[in-house]
């Protein structure tokens, strides 16, 4: 074809032109700038406005952060120190408030000689979470995961060692009940026994057994009352418990909502929609004022425990909705394939449905968890001293009256670090679990 | 069916309730129902017993008693001699007020930020990412108390506006005053007012407002009719008549006539003595709550908008361009209708979240329903159960209305495939 064309056309190039380097304006730093910041008049204007904004912010914030006082004991002393050090016109941050109230903001009124206990408790919790969160951690650490739910509350609240042992023994009893009943009466009755025996043990015998053992062999550490809990320790205690408990409860609620059994479905829908329809603060009011009314007369159980119950309920309903979305996104063929393999309901859920549904719903679940952790600040409204609650009392203090930016900036930074790392972890998890059928 | 002729005639034995899958689900449901009802009955009987022991059986009669407390920001007439019920109603209106203000500002901010985050300008996109991450990862309660503290600590007190050498001055031609007690803005006044109309004797609604809204609604309806006619003509002839001036006139002219006829003018706030008089007074608690909720929710809305626009595949834009549509027509006829279907459901659930988050008003002393019914009324009367139940019922009703609206929208725009 080129031959015939060559006869009719005036000029045909028969050799490739040697490659030229791209023009200077479109490569390198200059090219990048032209492409990304100054591609049109509008973009150039936007860039300049943004630069001016960033410049103004930095010019205002940087000197303020640097020209600061770490040693003063009151706001007025702070201002004097800054004026003496940097000139009479300067104003700077008074980080001294963070230094002075550091232990309160982190531990609340926890006795200072036993700060090692909450530190060890959260170390244990992290150690227990690590093998669940990251695949690189040795599997042996799973023993710590099993022990952490009993170890952490005991370290935080103290008291006799026999109570967590008695509670843990309930699970052993449940397992034993399953092993005894299942071969003799089938898996269903075995599961019922595994559920019923521990509950009876906890309700009727566990407390007495722990008390008896404590009399025979007194082992324990100094008990700490819930009133002394506060600061970020309180936020993390409530947040971590609610997050870990809400995932299994949320899965059960979601399965109940998808169930073909009408009554189970109605109950689950009712619980989920009720909890999602009311603000968390009303549920905290219930925990604060009403939960004791719901119990038999003269029961009075711990305020933090009551708050954890309601926050867990709240988180579970939201997690359930997210997982329902994941279940709905799963192709019907997956359910049918599981049925065709002859798997029963729980096996199909455990091996086929849940691994895929949970993978789909990871971003939603983690953003629910972030929301729950942020919402733990609401406990300040019902009088618990979390960081926000403390900030109110510090601002009411005569010495620190009028302090705003430093205090809230610090608390915001701490929350930002926690929440931002959670969202990064969820992105890492998504990448790791992407099996790539796209 | 035919291969198992004996199944139906098999005698029923008790153990089949557990081991036969045909009856097992029935057993489970009955057991679940009984357990649930036992739990509810146990809680109710405990509660009744406990409340009887305390000498305050469940009774909503306290709602008609005199409230005996003042509410500093009200939309309807209220004095401390009114009943608790009316105080709760005032709080309810305050909740709806801050929710409406917040949803509006959050939508505007969120759409702008979401679109700018997709900007090809690297710096602007990064700045917006920083905004979103900053506001999403810090608790909303912290933002609320933070905004409140900033308003109190950094804005001038009203008396700074006084005297010859005042340290503060009003903005926008002496019409707006920003003070640490709140904002004073001009109020609409009518010199030939129609007066108020009383609704069930409970509260008054301005007839001027009703007239204004009625005329506006009529104008919008007429405008929609004109557009429908233009569509019809375009479908028949292929030529679209120019109607924008007609549609603008049909809305604007009657509204202007009504405003002039009623003698519309603005009442400016003025400094009298130690404080401002006249104008609309928005307390600092309302401002702090409004701004914090809007800025916080805007970060989430921005992500929704961004996700919605990214969800429309590039092929749609290219196909529209291949049909010969111009870029803004591509946006309005092809991209937006599809993106809105993705955006609107989560957007509405953000509105719901904002409304529920407005219950944090209690932290800054704004008297919404949590502040009146769940705050002072509950504290004065000691009727915790009744107050919390009423509050929950109110919020549940709002969620129910909004989710019904959402389901209606969802059903209307759902893609009908296959």
TrEMBL record, chain A:
GO terms for cellular component: ATP-binding cassette (ABC) transporter complex. Gene3D superfamilies: MetI-like (1.10.3720.10). CDD domains: TM_PBP2. It is found in: Cell inner membrane; Cell membrane. Its main location: membrane. The chain crosses the membrane at residues 41-66, 114-134, 154-177, 184-204, 232-255, 262-291, 303-323, 360-385, 405-425. It is a multi-pass membrane protein. Belongs to the binding-protein-dependent transport system permease family. HisMQ subfamily. This is L-glutamine ABC transporter membrane protein /L-glutamate ABC transporter membrane protein /L-aspartate ABC transporter membrane protein /L-asparagine ABC transporter membrane protein.
TrEMBL record, chain B:
Residues 92-406 form the ABC transmembrane type-1 domain. One of its GO terms (cellular component) is ATP-binding cassette (ABC) transporter complex. One of its GO terms (molecular function) is transmembrane transporter activity. The keyword rRNA-binding does not apply. It comes from the Bacteria. Its main location: membrane. It is found in: Cell inner membrane; Cell membrane. Keywords: Amino-acid transport, Cell membrane, Membrane, Transmembrane, Transmembrane helix, Transport. It is a multi-pass membrane protein. The chain crosses the membrane at residues 23-44, 87-113, 134-152, 197-223, 244-267, 287-309, 358-376, 388-409. The keyword Membrane applies. GO terms for biological process: amino acid transport. Gene3D superfamilies: MetI-like. CDD domains: TM_PBP2 (cd06261). PANTHER family: AMINO-ACID ABC TRANSPORTER PERMEASE PROTEIN YHDX-RELATED, MEMBRANE COMPONENT OF AMINO ACID ABC TRANSPORTER. Belongs to the binding-protein-dependent transport system permease family. HisMQ subfamily. This is L-glutamine ABC transporter membrane protein /L-glutamate ABC transporter membrane protein /L-aspartate ABC transporter membrane protein /L-asparagine ABC transporter membrane protein. It comes from Rhodovulum kholense.
